[in-house]
Design a protein that fits this description.
This protein has a seven-stranded mixed β-sheet, sandwiched between helices. The protein is α+β, with helices and mostly antiparallel strands. It has one domain (2-141): Gcn5-related N-acetyltransferase (GNAT) (Aminopeptidase). The chain has helices at residues 11-20, 73-87, 119-122, 125-130; strands at residues 2-5, 35-40, 43-53, 56-64, 92-97, 110-112, 136-141. The model has no long low-confidence stretch (mean pLDDT 93).
């Protein structure tokens, strides 16, 4: 199994994974340059994407095929996305979740209010229209 940068050719597989796990597709095609995928025998079995904005990054689309869950693959994908954020020298990474608020604290994410998210990140499709107001907002500050 490998975790590596995604290519446009990976998008159909990533979209199928997102659909199966009931995660939003809106805007995912716009961020393939900052997406990572996990592969096993050439097949995409997981993904994570990072949207980069002036005020910080938005971690989105962290997904693992149901057959591969429980093997720390989500952990590896999240770490790879956070490493991209560090390389881009982003001050923080934000995310919205309805189901995984227990997963992300192990990476240093803490729950915050929507008002604490920079305006540039709030302009993302996820914040504007995809995730409901009931979604939990989390932030991880990155060292400078």
């Amino acid at each position: 199994m490998t975790v590596e940068r995604a290519t446009r050719a990976d998008l159909p597989d990533v979209e199928r994974l997102l659909e199966r796990e009931h995660l939003p597709l809106d805007g995912v095609r716009d961020h393939v340059e900052t997406m990572v995928v996990a592969r096993h025998d050439g097949r995409v079995i997981g993904a994570a994407a990072l949207e980069c904005y002036s005020g910080g990054g938005l971690l989105r689309s962290v997904v693992v095929d149901a057959q591969w869950q429980g093997r720390r693959l989500g952990h590896q994908l999240t770490e790879a996305a956070l490493e991209m954020a560090r390389q881009c020298e982003l001050p923080a990474v934000y995310l919205l979740t309805e189901t995984a608020e227990g997963f992300f604290p192990r990476f240093g994410f803490t729950a915050i209010s929507r008002e604490e998210v920079p305006a540039s990140v709030q302009e993302s499709v996820e914040f504007r229209s995809v995730c409901p107001a009931s979604a939990i907002v989390m932030r991880k500050r990155l060292p400078r």
